[in-house]
Amino acid sequence: MLHDLPIGMRSVCLARSTAFALGCLMSVGLAGCGDDAPRSGERRDAGHDGAGAHRVDWLDVSAPISPAQWLASRGEDKPRSIGDPEVQRIAARLSEAHARYRENERMIANRSVQVSEMLRQIGISETAVRILDDLTGIGAKLGQTEGFGAISQHYFNLRATGVAHSEAIATLKARYGSKS
Questions:
Q1: Span 96-148, pLDDT tens digits
Q2: How far is CA 41 from CA 60, 91, 99, 111, 126, in A?
Q3: Residue 103 neighbours by CB under 8 Å, 6+ apart
Q4: pLDDT tens across 50-64, in order?
Q5: Single pTM value for the model
Q6: Count of CA atoms in the C-beta half-sphere (13 A) of 65
Q7: Which stretches within the chain are classed as H helix?
């Protein structure tokens, strides 16, 4: 049936079906995630036990590193300290996202990384920190109904269908941003 469509429509259909399939996988992967982790400010600085904690693919509840340290340190030789300015900036952003979306900071960090990885798999390079910054900055009202996971899924779907970054963020701002 796909072969009967014009070439331009085939690519749109394939992009949408890929986005849907990846969205389903993301939903299944996130279904078992709870909000039982302490907030990042309650985590201790990564010491000897946390030497490689910034290299994990998924931040566990028992991780010896804060979500902000994990995001800031991904891809680096060693984890950044709690006092590092970028860790502090990301911690503030995670706290803001927690207040807006009512999901814990660890899960927001995990979802940011997951969306970054899903985008990478379809040839789009965006860091988890940029995704966190952009989705937290859409101006959503505090405690809104839609969670970070739902909005990040919407963002991924837009990007997977070929929508440019700036247009995807503008779409999300129009839909989820403050109306005042």
A1: 999 888 899 999 999 999 999 999 999 999 999 999 999 998 866 666 668 89
A2: 16, 8, 14, 19, 26
A3: 35, 97, 111, 147, 148, 149
A4: 457 666 778 988 888
A5: 0.72
A6: 28
A7: 7-31, 67-73, 85-101, 105-121, 128-136, 148-160, 165-176
